[in-house]
Amino acid sequence: MTTSAVQLELQPRELMGKKVGRLRRAGIIPVHLYGPGIESRALQCAARQLIPILAAAGASSPISVSIEGEQGSHLAFAREIQWDPTRDTVLHVDLLAADVSRTVTAQVNIVFVGEAPGAVRTGGNISQLLFSIDVSALPLDMPAQAEVDLAVMTSDDSIIRAGDIPLPSEVSLLTDPEEMVARIDVPRGAIGVEAEEEEAKEEAEAEAEE
After folding, report:
1. CB-based contact 124:186 (threshold 8 Å)
2. Whole-angstrom Cα distance, residue 42 to residue 129?
3. Closest listed residue to residue 63, CA positions, set 109, 37, 96
4. CB count, 10 Å around CB of 90?
5. Which of 132, 131, 116, 130 is nearest to 184 (CA)?
6. Tens digit of pLDDT per residue, the chain (210 long)?
7. Of 4, 58, 107, 181, whose CA is between 20 and 30 Å from 191?
8. Where on the phi/psi map is residue 16: left (φ > 0), alpha (ψ -120 to 50), or beta?
9. Contact, 159 vs 123, CB < 8 A?
């Protein structure tokens, strides 16, 4: 699924270096906008406005960035978010401006949907081994997430690899397609019980035909 860019307005920043501590205490986050073909800019934004935008966009969805008092906008991706480990607050954000006509790379989160028949039948659990994949696409074609339908896991030995994840034709997978995404962990003894039940069922059907 491709997402449209979310909108974000930033303000020019005058305080630099150690002085940005004043901004943070006032609930304002320093932002650095950079990228090919544009001048690197020191900007800022209120935390209450910026944090929901970052949460909505993640690392793979584009952000349409405008600057207060200036014309036009830039399409950008969140490339680095610095957190205060003690307060769990955002200290600084780097936004990478992108050319809409040039491909970019991003990590896209893997999201499971549906149920795995092979797990339901055996009482097993889905073990997720990979949580994101690397892909390349034009900025506006970048998927917000990669959905994996667990319905394809029909037996207890079913596995899903990165190459099995359906992607739009305009999106290229960069992760090793053989990398395992999910498998079914079956409780000890469940397979033996299932085999016995299947054998008993076959015997009953054979007797009914006689």
Report:
1. yes
2. 39
3. 96
4. 18
5. 116
6. 445 678 999 999 998 888 888 999 999 999 999 998 889 999 999 999 999 999 988 888 899 999 999 999 999 999 899 998 888 889 999 999 988 888 989 899 999 999 999 999 989 999 999 999 999 999 889 998 999 999 999 999 999 999 999 999 999 999 999 999 999 998 876 555 555 555 555 655 655 665
7. 181
8. beta
9. no
Contact 11, 68 (CB under 8 A): yes
Q: Are strands 104-113 and 89-97 parallel, antiparallel or unpaired?
A: unpaired
What's the chain's length in residues?
210
Report residue 149 as tokens: 């339908």
Classify burial at 42, counting beta carbons within 10 Å of its beta carbon; exposed 0-12, middle 13-18, buried 19 or more.
middle
